[in-house]
Amino acid sequence: MNDSSLVANAAGFRAQLIDWYDQSARDLPWRSQPSLYKTVVSEFMLQQTQVKTVLPYFHNWLQVFPSFEALASASEEAVVKQWEGLGYYSRARNLHKLARIISDLDSIPTDAKSWLALPGIGPYAAAAVCSIVFSDPSAVVDGNVVRILSRLVADRSEYKTTTDAAKTHQSLATALLNHARPGDHNQAMMELGATVCQNQKPQCLLCPVQSICQAKAQGIETKIPRFNKTKAVKQTVERAWIVSPKGVLLYRIPQTASRMKGLHEMPSLEVLNLKTPKTSPLIVRKRSITKYRITERFHQISPEKAFNGDLPDHFLWANTDSIASLTFTGPHRKWITELIDIVSEKQQGSNTHANSAPDTKNSLNFRGSSNP
DNA sequence: AAGACGGGGCG
DNA sequence: CGCCCAGTCTT
Q: Strand B contacts (CB < 7 A) among A residues 311-350?
């Protein structure tokens, strides 16, 4: 890869970039009155998650956990609950661990190498936090920076993952770093990638370094960087909508599970040991989990079919009160609302024919019947 | 080195 | 419906 001319002109690159950033930086909440805590929280939330998605979560988080100490004092359950819907829940657990470590520390390390040892802190986050908060001269290489650097030098290599590409470009990023303002330089790189040097439709006319971009010169900017694409895997999950006078039947993912431990969802027919009904499902919904494209079909099932005797471990009946306090996987909280509406509408119709089935909404509103 | 890990937004 | 997004941890 020929990056020698870019490195030779590093001073010019830094100046163009930082001038553009001073002019164009978005007004983001973690940038106003910055602190170590706000920076760390934002960096955790922004991993694999877009700014627009993070914004409301960041705001609410600061209200509930305004400091490392407040976060350290909270239970893990409360922390995960506050993270509900953001995904990658290990981020929340690691942020919680980090808060407890930081709170106990006599002096907080200020260099990326030391931060690398902390939970949830990888090469990217260590450089980001330490450069932004402590002016540590560490260059970040995230997906944005990979895209910018790949294009600047017209790197046609095909990469397996962003991590692989990041390793390749780390030395160039380091060579370009602005040591007078490392934090702003790093944020400027990511800002440029997010708002100008975009993946699909790069806004080259707005780019402060368009004149030195080799990919642009060759007209191949949209073809770089190259990643070998992983194909999606399709799955179907059959689930049960079971309502009794005690509420709706939910499943709590065991602590022994590899992912989403302790989170709640509507039980699959598989964990209930039930066969898929011939009748059509109440609703069918789709979601994506990393490479998986999952179709979830919700079947209405009478409570007698679920269990003969006592409720086994990991199952619970939830009414509208307890549902509010539980943490759900993905969109299951939203889907419960949809199912309640659909089933209650059906019963409205059948109730006009003078037969009286138990009403779903009344069952779920039953106070005092709660989970074991 | 490869796989796993969530969810929402967008064209 | 396919692709994208301020990565890290585990195996």
A: 329-331
Q: What is the CATH number of domain A4-227?
A: 1.10.340.30
Where exactly are the structural domains of chain A?
4-227, 233-365
Q: Is the CB of A179 under 7 A from strand B?
A: no
Which numeric CATH code is attached to A233-365? 3.90.79.10
| Minimum-distance residue to B8 (CA–C1') | A53
3-state secondary structure of A292: strand
Element (H, E) at A239: strand A233-241
pLDDT tens column, A318-348: 998 889 889 888 888 888 988 988 887 766 6
Q: What is residue A308's predicted lDDT score, i.e. its pLDDT? A: 67
Instruction: Report, as ranges of residue numbers, the positions in chain A whose pLDDT lies below 70.
Output: 1-2, 231, 308-309, 346-372
Determine the residue type at A141: V
Long-range (24+ apart) CB contacts under 8 A made by A198-207 are: A199/A147, A202/A151
Measured in whole angstroms, the distance separating CA A303 from the mean position of its chain's CA atoms is 35
Distance (Å, rounded) from C-alpha A215 to C-alpha A349? 63
Assign 3-state DSSP to chain A and report helix, strand, coil percentages, each to 5: 50, 10, 40
A76 catalytic residue (yes or no): no
